[in-house]
Batch of 4 targets.
Target 1
Amino acid sequence: MNTGRIPNRVKDEGNSRELLENLRVILDSIDEGIHVVDRNGVTVLYNKVAAQLDNLKEEEVVGKHILDVFPSLSRETSTLLQVLRTGQPICNREQTFTTYKGDEITTLNSTLPVKVDGKLVGAVEVSRNITLMREMAHRIVDLQVELFGRREGRRETESEGARYTFRDIVGESECILELKRKAARAAASSSSVLVYGETGTGKELFVQAIHNASPRARGPFVAQNCAAFPEGLLEGILFGTTKGSFTGAQDRPGLFELADGGSIFLDEIDSMPASLQAKLLRVLSEKCVRRVGDTKVRRVDVRVMAAMSRPPLDAVAEGMLREDLYYRLNVISLGIPPLRERREDIPLLTAHFIARFNAQLMMNVKGVSDEVAHLFSVYDWPGNVRELEHAVEGAMHLLDGDIIMLEHLPDNLRNLATHRESRPAAANLRAGGTAPRVPVKFQGDFRLAVADIESSLVRRALADAGGNISRAARALGIPRQTLQYRLKKLGIDPKVAQAAKSTRA
């Protein structure tokens, strides 16, 4: 007798279809390619972004084996099939393949095993297309090959790629003058240089100046940001590739070969993957490179200069920089102080940028108002010299007179000025008073008093750090080089400070 009930099997099939359809809707809303296969390597889910990346349609992939759709891959080279075989995830792996339509695609994949009750039932891959990025990287290298291939016989005194010299480093503060003296001495050698400082402090400015003041000035200067490309691309860019080493690979020299006889600058070195850091360490040790997929070793004569935004020892402690690579690079160390630690240079830098943009924009700006000068002097400049440069440039584009006023500055600076003006009055009202506070009258030499306070703070930090300058600098929140300069200025011996603590104890 028919009771009108739907069999459980039919209900389960209906629920499964509904669940699968809901899952497709969710996956199609994600802006990265999602490819799911079962334990046999047959595609069960393939979202719209993945189809766009591979220039395929969903129905051309779903229900088919990986190797039927991507015949250039194999069980060894397919990241999905590797995960099915090993059960281990693969993160940020570059993969170049050809679809059955003949399109060559390069993707960056992260592939994870799918397990139910501890049993492997499939794999899911998240991909993004880096084909255009790869092509761009190869074009950059090809252009550099063409550029440096013509360097024989050129008469310029400065290297192609390095425009700045020590004359371009603006500043009269003692810490900058000392840094320029140290960098000038470093220019005479071919030892590795490690530069660190916050974003916008001028790290590459110093690196280029060192190159142009060195015996390698007539050689090439090649720069590469280590955070700009994924691992596979970066390896080929730095060390070169050999035809056939992977799909689409051609015989190309890397940047180390192009920099032969000159200098290479590796920015954000702490963003370089650990495996490439190991390869870089071999290049520094052995003075030779091996292209990707090649057995031949090529000797190179290159000075390596690297930079990072954080203190190097912090990067080592966080596992972002190999300790052995740090010691190899840190032959000469330059810590660039932030702008807030050399405020006396702000008027010079402001005048320098006004003069530069006067020439570029054909203007005749005389300077800044007193309010702007004061604001510039008290602002902390988290973007450092680059932020000051952009503030001046932006103001000059809005200017209709010859003096930069508060209203010409970026919103964040104008808001700060307004806040600073209203803060004393607001504080006074909150306190219930009506009259402004009377400042304390100081009797004596202000500079000596400040020096005494600074000396006391530095001595205490050194004592607490056991005489370790790096730890003391971190406790004070200043770069190590800045602390070294202040110790010299204040006449403090770290060993004496440490002994003083021991005596107190």
Target 2
Amino acid sequence: MRTWALKHVVVDVPDLARKLHTQNTALLGGIAVFLSFSLVSIIYAWFTPLLLGKSVGELELVAIIFAGLLLMVGGYLDDRYHSPPHLQIIWPILASLVVMLAGIKVNVVTNPLAGGLLELGKITGLALTFLWLLGMMYTTKLLDGLDGLASGIGAIGGLIIFCLTQFTPFYEPPVGLLAIILAGACLGFLVWNWHPAKVFLGEGGSLYIGFILGVLAIVSGAKIATTLLVMGVPILDVVWVILRRLFWEKKSLTTADRKHLHYRLLDVGLSHRQAVVVLYLITVSFGLASLFLRTQGKLIALGALLAVMVFLGAWVVWRYRVKQKRPQF
């Protein structure tokens, strides 16, 4: 995909305002992740009894692959022709609708106070599923600002979901297999995407990783709280950016800037790789914690994650201001 993208000039051109790379870098790497995940999943479904089951049937697998294909088509069009935001969102919407039509949706949620499960109405379940999938896709899309960040977080998320599905209370081998396939695809891509990156995920790839993680959270039994802990830092970062742009800066949500947490870590003096590793460590820490916590414990962990995010945000702002006040020689 890198060779093809360079040959056909589907590249990301650096700019001084926001992008960190110094030369034209191939896009479309997400197609490699999509093809790896899809082909390995098809091989397991076709030649072994390990993948298809109650949680993931033939219809669900076909829908997941077809929805991913839609994201790849939309991503290619955006990477090649730079589609405006109102056209970019069409493809994530279509991908979400495809898996929902195949029956992948949130039917129950755990009652965080009294325990047990809460049955959701059909409309409520569909609405929650739609918002969840869009939220996950745009979280990884906005996360894809540093080399190796989105693909590494995707690999960590896949590994955590795999571990969760191996525990007896949540035993779901087919979902675990899909999760470990995703982790492998992301790790294979990370070899090429580690700083300095030789190829980027592109629009489709950055959306695709969030999409698959969102789907796995649903088909594993609505393990949304676990996925929230794994993706907590980028999700809270996105929420903060949305609130800041809407209420403080009065800017459009489609406006790009360098105020995401991963850029702030660079501004206070961390190297590119150090910033990525810091975010990896936070993700791994809360992801592993989610494996040993029940519902109420996960709520406490989410609160702790919010506190970590607030502390980290305050620290980088303080460090940035101190750095700006230092005399320059």
Target 3
Amino acid sequence: MPVSRYSTPQFNPYGDDAPVSTDEHWPAPRASVPLNAVVSLPGSKSLTNRELVLSALANSPSLLRAPLHSRDSDLMVEALRSLGTTITPVDAGDGRGDFGPDLAITPADELLGSTTIDCGLAGTVMRFLPPVAALALGPTTFDGDEGARRRPMATTISSLRALGVDLSDDGRAALPFTVHGSGRVAGGALTIDASASSQFVSGLLLTAARFDEGLELQHEGTRLPSQPHIDMTLAALQARGVDARSDEPGRWSVRPGPIAGSKVAIEPDLSNAAPFLAAALVAGGRVTITGWPDATTQVGADLADILPLFGATVARDGDRLTVTGPADGAIRGISIDLSTGGELAPAVVALAALATEPSEITGIGHIRHHETDRLAALATEINNLGGEVVELDDGLAITPRPLHGGIWSSYEDHRMATAGAIIGLAIDGVLIDDIGTTAKTLPQFPALWKRMLGVTEGGAGAAAPSTGTSAGL
């Protein structure tokens, strides 16, 4: 059930995977002066959607402070409402609501199916909610955008069947499928292959405390990508009083028991900070992100270690993280394994394409199965602008070449769109075909990006204020 498409972001802030008219593109602004910007970002999508699921399964109401409001999180909210959860916007009342209201969540007395859930392109919806639907009474059909039907779902489907859940998919092992919920799941021991996505693990762990026997889960694949996202899931469970642990790599245990209601402050999305912090290296100057946590399970925290490899300087001052571009303006090449933070790859590869030396980014074979095949998409788009990117089995090899302007296809992928914006900082005439797809996790991206650059709504550049400019809305 693809969502309808409008060709410009002001009419459709949430985007989807329908074709975009080729005569309507977003001109990526070129940086004209070194930056001196302060950027505030909305909440983490990964944290928001995990806490929404846990709140819906809890034994008492919860309040999410400063949650993300984006297409992915809105799809999760509507899906949980369709299963009987009450989710109400609440005015923060303290200046924290710049990006939208808080959310008060009251669990349903009994989860009810007999509904259809639109997953859009949200991996967290299509992989976190089928186990929840198994706890509901009645059938729940899952479908989404055309691109979602190409994303791997076999592990979720086979896992639920192994746990005794009745599920019909007509042999597709992909969307659409229907979970025939009986109101309970036995749980117990389960072995899966989560090589394609850590979300297969998190989706089971989030619901496991509500299974009759809890869950003893083991991963048997050759590799497990994005381990920090599983750590995030465990931390969220433990914070709500659930006995969830991992005593050895690739094994997790969740004991049956109540999930406590909670008041949770959602951290800013550090992965969405990647293009803004990368801008300091491309344009020169400095960019500060506010609200940077002291400790976090978000993979975006790795930016503080990755960006210095390119030649940046990183400094912390309280909850502010500032990245300053190289003094000589030269972006270095790097060689890095990004297996724990594959979602940072588009921004990292965009930087590598603008570097003065070759780079090799590995450990990211699994991002072929994200919103699009990100390895193929990055190689294609950079090469189309004159670059030299070669696909490896598990990554990309980037040899910097002089780039030129042209159309940058987003592939309905928010991180592809923002990678194009990074390239556009240094190259005239980069036209992004669907900037509206950034609404998947950051609807305010175009406005925040232009404000960081001191670009007026009419498109004219302006010198960045020497005292810094707040890009928060």
Target 4
Amino acid sequence: MNSLKPYTEYIESELAKVEFPEKPNNLYDPLRYFLKLGGKRIRPIMTLLGAELFGTAKEVVISQALSIEVFHNFTLIHDDMIDEAPMRRNQQTVHQKWDTNIAILSGDALVIKAYQLLSQIEPTQLPTAFELLNKTALEVCEGQIMDTDFETQEDVTIAKYIEMIRLKTSVLLGAALKIGALVAQASDQDQRNLYNFGQNIGIAFQIQDDILDLYANPDKFGKQVGGDVIANKKTLLHLTAIGKATLEQREIIRQLQNEDKLGFKVNRTKELFDQLMVKEDCQLMMQDYYNRAMKSLDAVEIDSDRKQTLIELAEYLVQRDV
């Protein structure tokens, strides 16, 4: 990931310049706090790379890249509330550090800031950019409500789960790349191919995230390992296990969902998933979506050597261990 370090540093530098009013401080202090928690900044980097592929400098598209990152952080603040997550990147979540009402309003303020940043674009491109972010924002909400509904549904399938993560996670990666390509005046076909690349690598990324939730090194993960198991989330690992389990194993999984001893719950679930080789099956599915992504990137009509940084980013997203 050394090739991406200059992009990360540039994003961090420019993100620090995003201004919020001083008062009311209980509205804007949480935003400053949350944006300083760091992160991989994958989405805004994708916007920069989407523009640079077609010869447009990162300075030209930085406002749109920051818009994508600010929008993403808005979704994280609200996701943390929905999931009742205590930690984000080894720090307290906004609703824990302040309260739920402040987290709601601060998240709302962030999404408004995202549109303000997006609007700093060539006027002729503004309607297309707004339409794309509007569509993406609605899809993210659709994915989030699907995720929430899954908690009480018994008929969740792997296909439904993939559609949920496509909406909740992947469309924003696709949009990030497409906005960069839009600013660079790429052809409509190249914009579509980049969007499809982003969507598919986003699905692969989320599958890896599901795997890491249970299998990551807790000292490096930044979140509670086994959080999805504790919350009884119907992740790809869970659905794959249900599909492969015997009746006896399914009953064990059902009983574990009501287990109060959280350490035992996580360890026993992991032990059962290992017996069923769930991790390996999910890794194969992740590889399939990675291959689909690379096929779309191959179709973008520019020299292959100019795609190398995006290829490295894609490899990192599916191979990372944190």
